[in-house]
Every structure is written in structure tokens, then in C-alpha cells.
């Protein structure tokens, strides 16, 4: 089973960035433990700070992979293009967020991704990604 985690802008700074919100683990450290825990999954990871690169990756994997775990980060709240890409593909997308976006600023309450997603998991820290992964294993 091929599943990809796609991370949007600034998530390359996990472990350094606003640690009180996002924790002190780097994504690479977390991703390594996730891969070891789920050896039956062909798990890959892509991160970009560039909106179009995220859209290109969604299109590239979106007709052949079994699942996409997408944290579009700030583009969640702004990108009609990423929202449209999620609706255009066949692979189911689970939207994730590390923080509880509803407990934060108003502008984080709206998502362009959710309407096209199979489901949304947020607020559980990095565990949000693992819960999304488990949803594909059922
Ligand atoms: C985030 C929440 C977004 O509002 C924010 O812009 C991010 C990360 C999260 O995982 O909690 O960069 O998607």
C-alpha cells in the first residue's frame, strides 16, 4: 500500500518553529519512527514551501497511490488551487493539522481542503499523522 505524507510551507522547520505549538521533534525524526512502526506500508514524504509544487505532487500521485495525508499548512486557509487538486484526483486525501486550528486565530478556521477530503484529523500534535495513516489501514 502506497501512502504519501505531503507537507506544506514551514513544516520543514518542525522542531525549530514555535515549539510551544508544534513540538520539538523534527519531521524527519518522527517520519523515521512512523516508517519503522508500519513496515507494511510504502510510506513516503514530500515537503514544499511552494504552492504549485504541492499541486504538482498531488496530481502526480493522485491516480496511483492508495492514500494521501495532506497538511497544506498555511495554504489550507488560502489555496483554492490545492483544494481543487484534492477534488480532481482519485486517491483519497486525509487532511491533517498538528495544532487545533479551531482553537487559534479566526483565519485558521476555514479550510479549502476539507470539502474534498475523506476526513480531517487535527489537534493531536504529530500523532495526527499517525491517526490519518491508521485510517487507511482499516
Ligand atoms: C498547521 C496549521 C496552520 O494554520 C498553520 O499555518 C501551519 C500548520 C498545523 O499543522 O497545525 O503551518 O497546518
From TrEMBL:
Site residues by UniProt (Transition state stabilizer):
17
Annotated substrate binding lies at 71, 77, 84, 98-99, 108
Q: Which GO terms describe its molecular function?
A: 3-dehydroquinate dehydratase activity
Give EC number(s), comma-separated. 4.2.1.10
Location of the active site: 22, 97
Q: Which PROSITE patterns match?
A: DEHYDROQUINASE_II (PS01029)
Catalysis performed (reactions) = 3-dehydroquinate = 3-dehydroshikimate + H2O
Pathway of action: Metabolic intermediate biosynthesis; chorismate biosynthesis; chorismate from D-erythrose 4-phosphate and phosphoenolpyruvate: step 3/7
A Gene Ontology BP annotation from the UniProt entry:
quinate catabolic process
Q: Name the keywords, alphabetized.
A: Amino-acid biosynthesis, Aromatic amino acid biosynthesis, Lyase
The record's family statement is: Belongs to the type-II 3-dehydroquinase family.
| Free-text function comment from the UniProt entry | Catalyzes a trans-dehydration via an enolate intermediate.
Q: How does it assemble?
A: Homododecamer.
Q: What is this protein called?
A: 3-dehydroquinate dehydratase
Can you name the source organism? Halomarinibacterium sedimenti
Amino acid at each position: 500500500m502506497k501512502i504519501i505524507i505531503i507537507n506544506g510551507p514551514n513544516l520543514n522547520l518542525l522542531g525549530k518553529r514555535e515549539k510551544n505549538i508544534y513540538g520539538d521533534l523534527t519531521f524527519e525524526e518522527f517520519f523515521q519512527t512512523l516508517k519503522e512502526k508500519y513496515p507494511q506500508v510504502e510510506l513516503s514524504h514530500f515537503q514544499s514551501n511552494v504552492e504549485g509544487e504541492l499541486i504538482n505532487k498531488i496530481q502526480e500521485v493522485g491516480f496511483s497511490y492508495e492514500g494521501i495525508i495532506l497538511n497544506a499548512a498555511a495554504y489550507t486557509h488560502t489555496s483554492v488551487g490545492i483544494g481543487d487538486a484534492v477534488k480532481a484526483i482519485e486517491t483519497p486525501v486525509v487532511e491533517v493539522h498538528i495544532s487545533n486550528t479551531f482553537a487559534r486565530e479566526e483565519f485558521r478556521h476555514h479550510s479549502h481542503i476539507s470539502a474534498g477530503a475523506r476526513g480531517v484529523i487535527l489537534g493531536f500534535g504529530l500523532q495526527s499523522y499517525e491517526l490519518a495513516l491508521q485510517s487507511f489501514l482499516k
